[in-house]
UniProtKB/TrEMBL annotation:
Belongs to the metallo-dependent hydrolases superfamily. DHOase family. Class I DHOase subfamily. The active site is at 300. It comes from the Bacteria. Its EC number is 3.5.2.3. Binds 2 Zn(2+) ions per subunit. This is Dihydroorotase. The gene is pyrC. One of its GO terms (biological process) is 'de novo' UMP biosynthetic process. It comes from Tessaracoccus lapidicaptus. InterPro entries: DHOase (IPR004722), DHOase/Allantoinase_Hydrolase (IPR050138), DHOase_cat (IPR024403), Dihydroorotase_CS (IPR002195), Metal-dep_hydrolase_composite (IPR011059), Metal_Hydrolase (IPR032466). Substrate binds at residues 54-56, 86, 273, 304, 318-319. GO terms for molecular function: allantoinase activity; dihydroorotase activity; zinc ion binding. Residues 43-232 form the Dihydroorotase catalytic domain.
């Protein structure tokens, strides 16, 4: 189907219209005879963009491949994802970045933009090939050692300096290792004491954010804060923005919805880094996403095979799935309580993440002349999440069995349907 009309669809600004699509773009008027698709009652959002996805290829294709992760993304309404560098081997050279870029092209259902490592092997010792990865076919613009925090301040400063000439961005997993006790695997607080688990105090996050925003100011470079989870971290970002520092921050769906109380049964599906926090932090995150202090929602989709999760809580791998329920959770936590309208959702899940990653052709308004990257949404539909009804190869879905919005009807990448609900 090269030309069609999505008729009677609502737009994020509340208007109702017909969207004409031809040759992958939104056009004034589709050719006569183009199919009309009745979209009354549905809302069109610009295709969602995730700046933080873990695809596990190469290295752990049993947990996720680029192709399976891309299908999960399309089911979640995404048209572009950024693939984190903590694969095996780590994505720290131009050649490795191009390999993943090519796997993304072959998968074809979302645009896969590669994130390069900041340091070789994520070891935090010497810089990876930042410039070469940028100039490669993969055109890397974002760099991250995610999973590991770049602890060395001088290396962090060098990385920020390196990417400034080409307007790159350094995305930090903000966690000061020396502030967490041995075996830290959850939020430090009353519950961690009761459960006998080692905790990460919130200040372990905020001190790194504070250090890094000062380095971003000193270098004039762009810093992105991955998966922010604390009220203190939010305050530092708010202060830095007011000062004119070039910093952006993301929050994950799970940190918007789930709290420390999930841990009472030691279910390792809820083990994640940074850890689930208490309600005061969750409230601070929701408020900051609403007022724009937090710029974007990013999934931190982290598939893990059963043999990496079926362990005592302290030994299990951290991370949970996120792509397929990201919009569901944002509707539940932000739209339903009236904290974000649909234009706000389009901003935090499409326009702004595309801008952070400097992704051309994504995060664009639904306007004539733009690529037809969009997701059709049923704003009212609810459903019980079933971890087995997933395109991901992994089953570590923290929403399994919960009744949540189930909005995604169809996703289009440059006019081509990449997902439609059966
Ligand atoms: N979030 C996680 O708990 N795990 C991520 C790494 C990361 O995002 O830090 C993973 O790669 O599994
Ligand atoms: Zn991380
Ligand atoms: Zn991550």
């Amino acid at each position: 189907m090269t030309a069609y009309v999505l008729s009677g669809v609502s737009l994020p600004d509340g208007a109702t219209t017909d969207l004409h699509v031809a040759d992958g773009h939104l056009v004034d008027e589709a050719p006569s005879g183009a199919e009309r698709v009745d979209c009354s009652g549905l809302l069109a959002l610009p295709g969602l963009v995730d700046v933080h996805t873990h695809l596990r290829e190469p290295g752990r294709e049993d947990a996720e491949t680029v192709a399976s992760g891309a299908r999960a993304a399309a089911r979640g309404g995404f048209t572009a994802v950024l693939a984190m560098a903590n694969t095996q081997p780590v994505t720290d050279t131009a050649e490795k970045a191009e390999h993943i870029h090519d796997l993304g092209l072959a998968a074809g259902v979302v645009d896969v933009q590669v994130i390069g490592a900041i340091t070789k092997g994520l070891r935090g010792e010497e810089l990876a090939e930042l410039g070469l990865m940028h100039r490669s076919r993969a055109g890397v613009t974002m760099f991250s050692d995610d999973g590991m925090c770049v602890q060395d301040a001088s290396l962090m400063r060098k990385a920020l300096e390196w990417v400034r000439p080409f307007d790159g961005v350094i995305a930090q997993h903000s966690q000061e290792a020396t502030l967490a006790g041995p075996g830290a695997c959850c939020h430090e607080g009353e519950l961690s004491g009761r459960l006998g688990l080692g905790g990460w105090p919130p200040v372990a996050e905020s001190v790194i954010i504070a250090r890094d925003v000062m380095l971003a100011e000193a270098t004039g470079s762009r810093l992105h804060v991955c998966h922010i989870t604390t009220a203190e971290g939010v305050e530092v970002v708010r202060w830095a923005k007011a000062r004119g520092i070039n910093v952006t921050a993301e929050v994950t769906p799970h940190h918007l919805l789930l709290g420390t109380e999930e841990l009472v049964d030691y279910d390792t599906v809820y083990k994640v880094n940074p850890p689930l926090r208490t309600s005061e932090h969750i409230e601070a995150l929701r408020a900051a996403l609403a007022d724009g202090t937090i710029d974007a929602v990013a999934t931190d989709h982290a598939p893990h095979a059963p043999q990496d999760k079926d362990h005592a809580f302290v030994d299990a791998r951290p991370g949970m799935l996120g792509l397929e329920q990201a919009l569901s959770v944002v509707i539940e936590t932000m739209v339903k309580p009236g904290r974000l309208d649909w234009a706000g959702v389009a901003d935090r899940m499409s326009h702004t993440p595309a801008r952070i990653a400097r992704l051309a052709g994504h995060g664009r308004p639904l306007a004539v002349g733009e690529p037809a990257n969009l997701v059709l949404v049923d704003p009212e539909r609810m459903g019980t999440v079933d971890r087995d009804a997933s395109a991901s190869l992994s089953r570590n879905n923290p929403y399994h069995g919960r009744l949540l919005p189930d909005p995604v009807v169809a996703t289009y990448l440059r006019g081509r349907e990449t997902y439609r609900r059966a």
